[in-house]
């Protein structure tokens, strides 16, 4: 098996990001909330990326911020995929009024812009990381539900699903053994995209002040804290943007490669 | 004018394959084929799927389908080598000197354009005729091909004509630019037998009247025998035998040709009905949800243990719907079904597991009937686990027994469906049904997607298994040759009704009702002049009426 160059690059950077996130306390040169220098110092040997608006080391903030952002995004994506795809498959396999009830409810949720929905919920609930994850996961699961249902509806009309029904199989077998393996390719491709949306979403919330609360660092929060610096030519607020862009591209390179590999199994669905 | 229109020498065609997990590599799919075709003659190319017949047909237009490349040899049309000429010359050739009729007219016509526009397009584009001339020609061809209302049919859209009519429109499309050669690629394969005979007669007459030469590609020797002057038998990209139609049909030299000629000559002794039927369908009427049209009207049939009831009919006659009603997928609006002495509940979810186990189903498309992500072992093993609770070594042993029974043997358990041939796939589906130890298996067109020789093997296997396991078959098919080979009793269906029902010997012997007569006389026979005889007979009868 040969891994194409694009996928290798993607794997390398994705791996790098996750490794840095996991081992943040060992890699970061200073503490997360430690004030170690002047306000907005330029990059130097001591502070590789310079310092932030109150003199904390920006590199350390980025590393800890990456940990928070990636953790929240990963957990939220996992939650949205589990809820969304199980519900989507369930609706497709059941059909009839079950499908109608779930689908219309999902339509209802989707008709409310998710950022506004999240802002309303977060303004009345305490903004803890758990609440953030659950909220983002459930909001995003409506999108996953749509995809999973659409893919599964195509699969449930196949003869092998009918054969399983005629055999008397329970709905669990039909969802997890007949439908899921054949729906995996489009779902994996979607997962790459959804993860990035989750990163952007949590960053947006933090930027608006309703996400991760200080002194906890996250990429959106770093932009917020340093946005004034742009007026003085300080590029501190741009680093999180670079980080998000690189993570986004590399994750999708990996997702594309997985998609190609799984569909090239003959008989697999596109 | 040369006396050879199409001259093919040493034609080699290669393709790139991409086996999963391995490097892609080149394989040769046609290994040096030679033939000549004189103007106005018809050459039949015959072989099973994968024999390379369509590929050769397309190569005579200097075209290779996606991933396919012409790697060697020469193809000359009217004395010009078309393989070495540039794209510009090839474009001048296609649609002017050589045209093409594909298997599925429904998929080949643009649904958004009127038929006339599409039929005349090539002729006008190639500057062979003006728009007016081309349209006159098209109407003339519509008339010649026996299409209804030839003056106005061109203004219809493809969905407004039937499948058989559309196939004839496609033939008109191919003949409109007055080509020297037409490549017919399985033009009647997707049609019902009663429609096939009309299209076949129309094509034959059109070829004869216009003096065009044709390559006629098909897997059905009986069909090609009716239209061609010469036949070339292909197997796996190489020529097996070439000769006049008369010689190939009546005096085949090669073993493979002999097998093709004698296909479907399985003889099956009819069994006598027993006292208690295993399946009794009484006065079933059914319609699909949200429609007010009865797809099945008052159907009553019986099936006895260890026997086969063949349900015959054209597409749309309701035969597959009958299967859906019996399996419980479509609850009937009236009537009842008795299975093995007990009445079946109308819908699937309320049926006890025992009923589900004893009533199994085999599908037409083995490809979609097996989960592509499960191994053969899982597919066959699941019913064993599900109905009998078999596990571990015991299950493995039973799977192997079943594989032996369907004549597949060792090494198949870990394969995925994609790694099996069409016939092997259908065999695995049979094993899955057998694993449940059923009393009745519903076979829905199980052989129609297979090559004749492979289909023969499947039928023999089914008959053999019936002897061993004493299982009854409800055999749904449109193919009367299959019915002869396997049935004990027959129900002929037409527009949702059973028009003729009884033991095989009785159903297949005169006096016939009109529909059964039409159906029976439409099945192509492996003899020269059959088509003319049937057409002449029908004309005589209609004149007599």
What descriptive keywords fit this protein?
heterodimer, A: 270 residues, mainly alpha, MetI-like fold, 71% helix, disordered C terminus, B: 545 residues, alpha/beta, Rossmann fold, 2 domains, six-stranded mixed beta sheet, 21 helices, 20 strands, 23% strand, globular, transport (chain B), ATP binding (chain B), ATP hydrolysis activity (chain B), ABC_transporter-like_CS (chain B), ATP-binding (chain B)
CATH architecture label of chain A: Orthogonal Bundle
How many alpha or pi helices of chain A?
10
Count of DSSP strands of chain A: 0
The oligomeric status of these chains comes to heterodimer
Summarize the main sheet of chain A.
none
Overall domain count of chain B: 2
Strand portion of chain A: under 5%
Keywords (chain B): ATP-binding, Nucleotide-binding, Transport
Subcellular location (chain B): Cell membrane
GO molecular function, one term (chain B): ATP hydrolysis activity
Protein name (chain B): ABC transporter ATP-binding protein
What does this structure look like?
- The complex is a heterodimer of chains A (270) and B (545).
- Chain A is built from ten helices and no strands.
- Helices cover 71% and strands 0% of the residues of chain A.
- Chain A is elongated, with a radius of gyration of 22 Å.
- Chain A has helices spanning 5-22, 24-27, 58-94, 96-110, 114-124, 129-156, 159-167, 171-207, 219-226, 239-263.
- Residues 265-270 of chain A have low confidence and may be disordered.
- Chain B folds into two domains: 6-261, Rossmann fold, CATH 3.40.50; 279-509, Rossmann fold.
- Chain B is built from 21 helices and 20 strands.
- In chain B, strand 17 (440-444), helix 17 and strand 18 (472-477) form a beta-alpha-beta unit.
- In chain B, helix 14 (376-388) packs across helix 15.
- The interface between A and B is medium-sized, with 21 and 33 residues.
